[in-house]
Amino acid sequence: EAQVTQNPRYLITVTGKKLTVTCSQNMNHEYMSWYRQDPGLGLRQIYYSMNVEVTDKGDVPEGYKVSRKEKRNFPLILESPSPNQTSLYFCASSLSRGSYEQYFGPGTRLTVT
Amino acid sequence: AQSVAQPEDQVNVAEGNPLTVKCTYSVSGNPYLFWYVQYPNRGLQFLLKYITGDNLVKGSYGFEAEFNKSQTSFHLKKPSALVSDSALYFCAVRDITGKLIFGTGTRLQVFP
Questions:
Q1: CA nearest A10 in B: which residue?
Q2: Which residue of B has its CA nearest to A95?
Q3: What DSSP character marks residue A84?
């Protein structure tokens, strides 16, 4: 089944404790991105990657890192999480930057206390 | 800068009645417009898109959307609402980097 998977689905952590949210897709997509969803703000892009070893900042990159060492994986790293990073995070992928449909993962709900 | 606006936080409709979820856009050049739906505890699912061509676009689950260039709108519609259509709906426009720029979302509540 074609899908985007994220782990973990739920995470409660404390300020400053490094964490990684994994994202993997099995559709051989070139383009992957991370969004965060906050009430009243919709979804905002954090980082995106057009291909392996090619990443770039989205609208809200501060406090986040990403890497794209393999085509299928695009982990999101929070080196020192803070409470304002409490949010719902979605990974998405598409065949290429120009593709019209993006496929979204199920989401990761992160709480930083 | 490109943007979309969803003026209604919530839309309530009775089952069997037609529904409309509003979206207006602001873009330079030709817009690539999308509707996504989010069910509770799920990721976003693609409903439909407008790229070019016919102003009435048909999508999944019986939804359609009407592109209106003069009013810069892309409203989502369905002739007969179902209780199972209750969800959060997002309008989005795609920019040149492939990024989707989302509206703030409209919660659709369909009452039996």
A1: B41
A2: B98
A3: G
**B90: chain A residues, CB-CB within 8 Å:** 42-43
Integer distance in angstroms from the first to the last C-alpha of chain A?
Answer: 36
Find how far residue B5's CA is from the centre of its chain: 10
Selected residue of B35, B99, B101, B106 to mutate for chain A interface (largest A Cβ count, 10 A): B99
What DSSP line would sit under B31-53, residue for residue? Answer: --EEEEEE-TTS-EEEEEEE-SS
Share of chain A above pLDDT 70, in %: 100
* pLDDT tens digit sequence for A32-61: 999 999 988 889 999 999 999 999 999 999
Q: Using an 8 Å CB-CB cutoff, list chain A residues near B51.
A: 100
Look-up: residue for tokens 């795609």? B94
How does residue B19 score in pLDDT terms, banded at 50, 70 and 90? very high
* % of chain B exceeding 90 in pLDDT: 78
More confident residue, B43 or A22: A22
Q: Which residues of B31-70 are buried (b: 16+ CB within 10 A; e: fewer)?
A: bbbbbbbbeeeebbebbbbbeeeeeebebeeebbbbbeee
Q: Could you give the count of Cα atoms lying within 13 Å of B76 in the half-sphere of its Cβ?
A: 32
Question: Is residue A61 within 8 angstroms of chain B, CB to CB?
Answer: no
